[in-house]
Amino acid sequence: MENRLNVGITHGDVNGISYELIIKLLAENRICELCVPILYGSPKVAAYYRKVLNIENFSLNTIREPGEANGKRSNIINCVDDNVKVDLGKETPESDQATMVALKYALDQLDRDEIDVLTLAPQGPNAFFTEEAGSLVEYLGKRYNTTDIMSILVSEKIKMGFVTEQVKLRDVPHQVTQKNIFKKLTLLDDTLRQDFTILKPKIAVLGLNPQVNCGQNGDEEVNVIIPAIERAREEGIMAIGPFSAERFFSERMYEKFDAVLAMYYDQGVVAFKSVDEESAACYIAGLPVICSMSLTDPHYDIVGQNLGDEQGLRNALYLAMDVCVHREQNIELQKNPLPHYDIATNSNESDLNVEQIEGVRAELED
Fold it and tell me: Any idea which GO molecular function terms this record carries (predicted)?
């Protein structure tokens, strides 16, 4: 198969289930039919886990750079110290360091277009503290010098972005501002168009307070969220809300929308996983490169027991590949745009936006 993507995979935490998931995933013949997988990690650690898990008929082709990759096999670039210590079931400073070394190495090659996309295996929660960052999003924002960045949870049934992410609950109201909401709506709308080829995305916006949609909007809804939504509409973004999170998910309103913007991470992630965790993965929006990650935890409690489920890592790998294809398609479309025709007499895009918003509202009220 020609023109397969070079897909980088970082090894995550060497003390968690990452290597088990990676080995199980790369053992599937179809993976090498779809892409050229390149693992950033340690051949020594990979061999150790293969022995611990008693996995036969699997090997990795050791290379020095992506240009040497064997298109018919899974490849590995040794980018950590051969003496890296594996301490099963424990996150340690050494395992966090090995996580970040592999991630930096892979990102450097991604920046140089030596690989096309990057997928991250499960990492320890403290790994990014070594880089004075509290999360992957914060770390990547610093690396690429941007604040217009957001993790988007993606599944077959729902996509979800966040105004605030890894922050303490008491700090959420201070960060839920008109400016931040508008920026996140703009980023989410752009990402849905460019990376998911959704021509006119419909975005639902959740409220901050639980009484939204009960005739008792709180101060944040009235003074912050609603004005931000109205500003977004003026820019042609089809944003609707704010909705009470409880009602929005219990009544399955998300089925009427292309994406949801939650005010903070915990508000949305539990509901997201209850809707569709099986096909879920995370995409990092707002970057010049394509980066995805599994939503699976390192699961230190089951390391070495052959109980890990690689589906989440598979989802993340497929997600990154899909986004890459969509971006390439959009670049081609922009080179050869179709002529624009006004499909509604005496109407403009703002008029159509208003009509479509009212149509969605009518569907929700039925």
Answer: 4-hydroxythreonine-4-phosphate dehydrogenase activity; metal ion binding; NAD binding
In a domain, 331, yes or no: no
- The full length of the chain comes to 366
Q: Are 296 and 247 found together in one domain?
A: no
pLDDT digit string (tens) for 207-265? Answer: 998 765 545 566 788 899 999 999 999 999 999 999 999 899 999 999 999 999 999 99
Does 158 lie in the same domain as 57? no
Q: Which domain holds residue 156?
A: 152-276+347-366
Same domain for 136 and 184, yes or no, is no
Number of domains in the chain: 2
Other Cβ atoms closer than 10 A to 278: 12
Q: What is the 3-state secondary structure (H, E, C) of 211-278?
A: CCCCCCCCHHHHHHHHHHHHHHHHCCCEEEEEECHHHHHHCCHHHHCCEEEECCHHHHHHHHHHHHCC
Which tens digit of pLDDT belongs to each residue from 63-93?
Answer: 999 999 999 999 999 999 988 999 999 999 9
**Residue 331, pLDDT score:** 74
Q: How far is CA 360 from CA 10, 191, 232, 240, 250, in A?
A: 41, 21, 17, 9, 18
Query: How many angstroms separate the Cα of 342 from the Cα of each of 193, 337, 347, 352?
Result: 20, 15, 8, 11
Are the C-beta atoms of 161 and 150 separated by less than 8 Å? yes
